[in-house]
Amino acid sequence: DTEVTQTPKHLVMGMTNKKSLKCEQHMGHRAMYWYKQKAKKPPELMFVYSYEKLSINESVPSRFSPECPNSSLLNLHLHALQPEDSALYLCASSQSQGPSYEQYFGPGTRLTVT
Amino acid sequence: GENVEQHPSTLSVQEGDSAVIKCTYSDSASNYFPWYKQELGKGPQLIIDIRSNVGEKKDQRIAVTLNKTAKHFSLHITETQPEDSAVYFCAVSPFIQGAQKLVFGQGTRLTINP
Fold it and tell me: In the structure, what pLDDT confidence band is assigned to residue A62 with cuts at 50, 70 and 90?
């Protein structure tokens, strides 16, 4: 089973709201990722967690705040977003953070900022 | 940093024919090359991958070839079917100490005409 689940599927929020995206995997993977994907573009890496510690932050604005409560869960807290932050947010996981481990993606959360 | 170019951006083939998508990369230290299929409204699905110690890998109708000297790799789909219609992304995992980042190509929209 290579399933990564994400909730919610769709989210509409105003620029003053606070919301959270959730990601879960039960494959025993120890690396988890957040990506942002704009329409007709490839996924862009935002954050990497390895063994529940943040290992890569791709210079993402502080209005995005990741959290990894345990090895199966990954959250992305959203605050004071801008309309240009509207995108598909994808979570992925891999067995570990080595350079050649398969990454498996979830279905994504479609975020619209109004 | 790593740069990945993917061609063509769109590809239309008749059902039953073959489709080929090509990617080139810049970092000779990269050693992992996955291909993802993304259907409308879904997350990317890993369909095949290849590591730098292998020149070719097949899985039923899908194959990937790697030329490390020329720094390019290709996806081959034979006997195409309507359900192969999707956006395909190549990716490269450059070697970064203690980390894995996937750098994606810009994607190829494949359409299979019945």
Answer: very high
